[in-house]
């Protein structure tokens, strides 16, 4: 009898231990699958080259697509559709097309890094005027995707999967915290730099035109007059150096010409330009290129640099309220 009871007791203990172990494993798996992380190197396909995904953030209860678009039109409008609208973004499980994840809301809709609408979580269309070169960014929120979902399509509007004029990202890889190709913040910055060459082309022409107009006319810089001087040329590698600076300042929300301990000359060396003969103009708080340029013109040291006859080439960039111009002679 004792042997039988011992056997039964052993079975009961084994049952509870096994179930406890299963429960613990399930809890651990849930804990790992819901742990926050960021995918800085999203993998996907798209129809056009005027939009990208900066990154995909995975929080405890949400999956957030960080979307970026550059306007190619001289003038027009851009429309964002709130949850419940027919053209609102949604996610479709590639392995099970019937499984759809509806958008919860859009946050921080911005034009050239200036937030125009902090949140869109109602059934409505938010319309914004645009001009060529405007950069639109936003955060598109969904529920945290189940671990079983591996590939999704990010679609603008039900039934619009094959519409090439929609902001669709196809075959988006849904990564996990253990994925090897999550990338880094530097990877995201490099991706944005490459993408925004389209915008920088528009800004480059304006920067160069303003500088050469000033040099052609001559200018009073502080108490002294500087006569007309020869025009200068644009250098795309210098521009890359300035772009890296303003993005770093934007990320740190600070104002310095040193980034990661590197000064202007060292940052130029990183893009293959070895020189000690370089000036750098910086400014903060302006939202338009004409404002930033006027600020430099009215500041004697900055003005003198732009009027220096020895200067032969420049590069410049902006990120939100941060501006930089490097002049090499």
Can you characterise this structure?
Residues 1-26 form the signal peptide. InterPro entries: CAP_sf. Keywords: Signal. There is one protein chain. This protein has 329 residues and is an alpha+beta fold. The protein has two domains: 37-180; 200-328, Pathogenesis-related Protein p14a (3-Layer(aba) Sandwich). The chain is 32% helix and 33% strand. The protein is built from seven helices and 19 strands. The strands form five sheets. The protein has a six-stranded antiparallel β-sheet with strand order 1-3-4-11-8-9. Strands 2-13-12-6-7 form a five-stranded antiparallel β-sheet, with no helix packed on it. The longest helix has 32 residues, at 2-33. The chain is elongated.
Keywords:
329 residues, alpha+beta, Pathogenesis-related Protein p14a, 2 domains, 6-stranded antiparallel sheet, 5-stranded antiparallel sheet, 32% helix
| Derived structural class | alpha+beta
- Helicity level, as a percent range? 25-40%
- Quote the average pLDDT: 87
Spans of at least 5 consecutive residues whose pLDDT stays below 50 are 20-32
Count of all domains? 2
Radius of gyration: 27 Å
Principal-axis shape:
elongated
Distance between the termini: 100 Å
Percentage of residues in DSSP E strands: 25-35%
Q: What's the story with the biggest beta sheet?
A: 6 strands, antiparallel
Q: How many separate helices?
A: 7
- Total number of beta strands: 19
Element order, helices and strands?
HEEEEEEEEEEEEEHHEEEHHEHHEE
Give, in spatial order, the strands making up the sheet with the most strands.
1-3-4-11-8-9
InterPro entries: CAP_sf (IPR035940)
Keywords: Signal
Signal peptide: 1-26
């Amino acid at each position: 009898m004792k042997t039988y009871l011992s056997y039964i007791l052993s079975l009961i203990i084994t049952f509870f231990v096994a179930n406890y172990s299963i429960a613990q494993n399930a809890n651990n798996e849930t804990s790992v699958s819901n742990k926050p992380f960021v995918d800085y190197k999203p993998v996907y396909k798209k129809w056009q080259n005027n939009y990208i995904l900066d990154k995909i953030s995975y929080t405890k209860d949400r999956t957030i697509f960080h979307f970026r678009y550059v306007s190619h039109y001289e003038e027009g409008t851009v429309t964002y559709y709130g949850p419940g609208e027919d053209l609102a973004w949604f996610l479709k499980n590639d392995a099970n097309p019937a499984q759809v994840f509806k958008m919860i809301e859009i946050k921080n809709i911005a034009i050239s890094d200036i937030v125009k609408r902090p949140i869109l979580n109602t059934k409505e269309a938010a319309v914004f005027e645009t001009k060529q070169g405007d950069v639109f960014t936003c955060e598109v929120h969904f529920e945290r995707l189940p671990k079983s979902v591996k590939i999704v399509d990010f679609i603008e509007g039900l039934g619009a999967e094959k519409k090439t004029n929609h902001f669709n990202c196809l075959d988006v890889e849904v990564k996990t915290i253990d994925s090897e190709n999550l990338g880094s913040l530097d990877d995201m910055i490099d991706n944005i730099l490459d993408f925004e060459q389209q915008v920088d082309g528009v800004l480059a022409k304006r920067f160069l035109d303003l500088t050469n107009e000033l040099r052609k006319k001559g200018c009073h810089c502080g108490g002294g007059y500087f006569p007309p001087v020869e025009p200068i040329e644009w250098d795309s590698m210098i521009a890359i150096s300035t772009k890296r600076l303003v993005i770093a300042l934007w990320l740190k929300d600070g104002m310095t010409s040193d980034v990661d301990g590197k000064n202007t000359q060292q940052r130029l060396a990183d893009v293959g330009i070895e020189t000690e003969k370089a000036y750098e103009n910086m400014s903060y708080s302006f939202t338009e290129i004409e404002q930033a340029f006027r600020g430099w013109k009215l500041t004697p040291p900055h003005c003198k640099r732009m009027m220096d006859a020895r200067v032969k080439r420049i590069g410049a960039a902006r990120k939100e309220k941060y501006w930089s111009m490097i002049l090499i002679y």
